[in-house]
Specification:
- This protein is mostly helical and about 80 residues long.
- Helix content is about 55%, strand content about 0%.
- The protein contains 3 helices and no strands.
């Protein structure tokens, strides 16, 4: 009988980070999210789809701070009015 060893190396990028996560803290703990974000930012691909995805992710990461502060202000005013 012959022994067959199968190894797969899907990503051979030197910028990809790996981390030893020893404890289970849930599906999306902060270490895992930081590794995924760093790998996503460092991954270089020249396909049109990947370029579009990087542009979309940058758009969704930036949030209008004025809009957020107005929403929070309106929420606090509504809760104060509700208790008066």
């Amino acid at each position: 009988m012959e022994s067959i060893t199968i190894t797969s190396n899907l990503v051979s990028n030197s910028n990809v980070q790996t981390s030893k996560i020893n404890t289970y803290l849930g599906l999306l703990n902060s270490d895992y999210k930081n590794i995924v974000k760093a790998n996503f930012k460092n991954f270089k691909s020249s396909s049109i789809y990947s370029i579009k995805q990087r542009v979309k992710s940058n758009q969704f990461q930036t949030c209008c701070s004025v809009g957020t502060s107005l929403k929070v202000l309106i929420f606090f005013i509504a809760t104060i009015i509700a208790f008066i």
